[in-house]
Amino acid sequence: MTRMLxxxxxxxxxxxxxxxxxxxxxxxxxxxxPFLGERKLPQHIMDQLNNLxxxxxxxxxxxxxxxxxxxxxxxxxxxxxxxGVQVSDIIAQAFPVSLWLGVLGMLIxxxxxxxxxxxxxxxxxxxxxxxxxxxAMAGICIPAFVIAPVLGITLGxxxxxxxxxxxxxALCAVLPALTLGLVNAAYIARLTRGGMAxxxxxxxxxxxxxxxxxxxxxxxxxxxxxxxxPAVSYLGPAFAALITGSFVVESCFQVPGMGLHFxxxxxxxxxxxxxxxxxxxxxxxxxxxxxxxxxxxxxxPRLRSNP
Length: 307
Fold this sequence. Notes:
Blueprint: H1 2-27, H2 43-52, H3 59-73, H4 87-122, H5 127-141, H6 144-156, H7 174-200, H8 203-210, H9 215-227, H10 229-253, H11 258-268, H12 271-299
Helix pairs in contact: 1-12, 4-5, 4-7, 4-10, 4-12, 5-7, 6-7, 6-10, 7-9, 7-10, 10-11, 10-12, 11-12
């Protein structure tokens, strides 16, 4: 197991380096200039700004200096748009917001998706199964930017305390987290249904039923552990979907998280902020997938002997 974890960790580091390298060179190909505002600056001012931020050096020198700053000093660089503000400070303020939304969204997805998938598998080929899978398919097909305003109109404008915009109190997280959670709950429900249906048709389940074992014990004791493997495998990519989906959701609900900053940084050509946010997202996604690998090994002991 240790060998497997070390291998996954090494692969994760490689993925982060490749992701950051691609991002570094791609953002510099964006049209426009971070210092071009409503009024065009004189050329000598532009030259001074480029020199101040090191943008007048070759791309490879900038690339090496960027990694040097991160590794030696933990410095992500300054924001090119917000004078005197460091990228690390922006991330430190926005990260807890996005993390809180991601955790709430994942919790909603798991609590809604897994029971729904279990019920659909138990009542396979009957009307509860058809109804649950119909709702799951609708959740998959309807994008987050459609669900967000629908929830805002149906819930946010009629339930006291819920907010459709801003981040003033704890209830402001309800609608964005619900939007993120419902989309991923649909995928988890379908995966749980497929895994549980396969296990429930196995010979040892038939034997347990023949011995008079109750339905609840069959579901939660005999079938759940193996039936959850497909859904657990999806949790890593699901967390990535929650993070990337938060770009749209945070913009819809005006949540000051990393997604909103990423959209604004791309519009403003804020190179260092884009690179810092992508690096943060990459680390989170790699960590989530590593946690999923550990969970899969815990659920399936046969994986412990595999390299």
